[in-house]
Amino acid sequence: PTPVVGMLGLLDDTTKVMTSGFKNEGDAIILFGKNNGHVGGSEYLFVEHGLVAGDAPTIDLEYEKRVQKTCREAIGEGLLKSAHDCSEGGLAVALAECTIQNSIGADIQLQSSDSPRFDFALFGEDQSRIIITCSSEKRKAICDLAKMLNVDALVIGEVGSNRLKIRGGVDIECDAIRDAYQNSIEISMKR
Q1: Residue 154 near residue 35, CB atoms below 8 Å
Q2: Burial of 72 (0-12, 13-18, 19+ CB in 10 A)
Q3: Which of 57, 121, 167, 185 could be disulfide-bonded to 38 (CB atoms 3.0-4.6 Å)?
Q4: What is the pTM of this model?
Q5: Which letter, b or e, does each residue of 9-27 get, where b requires 16 or more Cβ atoms within 10 Å of its Cβ?
Q6: CA distance linking residue 172 with residue 182, whole number of Å
Q7: Distance between alpha carbon 102 and the CA centroid of its chain, in Å?
């Protein structure tokens, strides 16, 4: 049996609805939170190596609260164009999901100090991370807000083109990402 949680909420101002898809070419892509590359108990270990091993990443609830507050305040102030959590599958999967809605890609450059290994940086399932986008004019205001709330905010790239490029190893068309996402059951059945 699998426990399922259903939730319902009220949104006082529908103009503040935030979706996950990238919107406009040239928008900055910022990662709220720390990208440490924790792969214990991750989809990466299972899919790539057939391992169910390691502990799930720990969570600092106070930091999580600050990350969420930073995102909510930025939305409330009209600073963001999109927001998407990083969870199952890690940063690379979350970025791929951001391209699906509008078939708009991105050029991503991760810092070498983000994680000890490139594959861990891409697929680690660290807690308390949100990918957001904003216009280049609002980038400083968002980074200042994050700093004020003691949250890491790292500019990791820019929205644009019809491809997801993560320098160092990923370059794929958005339509191919969408096809794999929307037709994965059909593709698996044909194998």
Answers
A1: yes
A2: middle
A3: 57
A4: 0.90
A5: eeeeeeeeeeebbbbeeeb
A6: 16
A7: 16
**CA-based end-to-end distance of the chain:** 28
Give the contacts of 134 (CB within 8 A, at least 6 positions apart): 27, 28, 30, 74, 79, 80, 81, 142
User: Which residues lie closer than 8 Å to 139 by C-beta, 6 or more apart?
Assistant: 28, 30, 155
The two three-digit tokens of residue 146, written as one number: 């994050």
Backbone angles phi, psi at 107, to 5 degrees: -115, 115
* Residues 74 and 138 sit within 8 Å (Cβ to Cβ): no
Q: What are the tens digits of pLDDT across the range 24-48?
A: 999 999 999 998 888 998 889 898 8
Structure tokens at 51: 């391992």
Closest CA to 152 of 70, 90, 91: 70
**Contact partners, residue 190, CB within 8 Å, separation at least 6:** none
CB 119 within 8 Å of CB 44: yes
Q: pLDDT tens-digit profile of 70-106? A: 999 999 999 999 999 998 899 999 999 999 999 999 9
